[in-house]
Amino acid sequence: MPETQWLLEHVPSYAAWYRFGLFWRFADGLLRTLRKDPEWPYPERAMNRHNDRHREQMTEYLLEQLDGRPDLVDTCLPDYPPYGKRILIDNDWYKTLRRDDVALVTEGVASVDGHTLVATDGTRREFDVVILATGFESGKLLHPIEIVGRSGTTLAETWADDDPRAYLGMTVPDYPNLFCMYGPNTNLGHGGSVMFQAECQSRYITDCLRQMIESGVTAIECRRDVHDDYNARVDAEHEQLVWTHPGMSTWYRNARGRVFSVMPWRLVDYWRMTHDADLTDFKLS
Predict the structure, then answer these.
(1) Residues in a beta bridge with 154
(2) Considering the chain, what percentage of its residues have pLDDT values greater than 90?
């Protein structure tokens, strides 16, 4: 908006205030609305009354965009709580679905037979072009790089192919001096900034290096008990949040149902956790 742009250009410190407002409303302030309320009577559709209000607002928009097309409403309206999956800004997708030359097919593709797509319900449709947009193997972090630890075990083996874990999302026992940027459980599912995460992590890694140089340490390796305790706390926190809701499938979880991607903490919590490196969390050599 022109008014906001003027404030950003002319009012000292307004940019920092504006940034804080965005972070609070769409990240830290939002996270509390994604927690399970054991007293909430409609757990299948929302996590709590605040989360249900989000659902009402989003549903109102969907019904407005698909007015007169109850068939599309039935297939487009999610039956799981808001923020359980990544929320995107509508880029006229609903309007596109209303076009006469567009049909929304929700069945999966069973096979391709020449120029015919065969759906899982047996329906056959002729096609000219097929766009393969099946995603990627999000659980295989650092794949296909082969990283071997002190014990001779590869990181892929340690992470069981799709179950990556790391202390603060950055460092793993048996792999000294290895730091991951944007590693396990540091993705943001409720809002925030990848740049903010990168700043926290780069500061933490830099502080580790500074202390190593000043202390004459050549290698640091995360302690197993520190690593395991941190990940136990991550899992326990996720048990209270929307991303473990059983009413949906999501790439945030691995084949065993564990949330490996998104972070359960507020941004300010992660900032505190990573602001100053504590080398007592490591074995030094």
Answers:
(1) 148
(2) 90
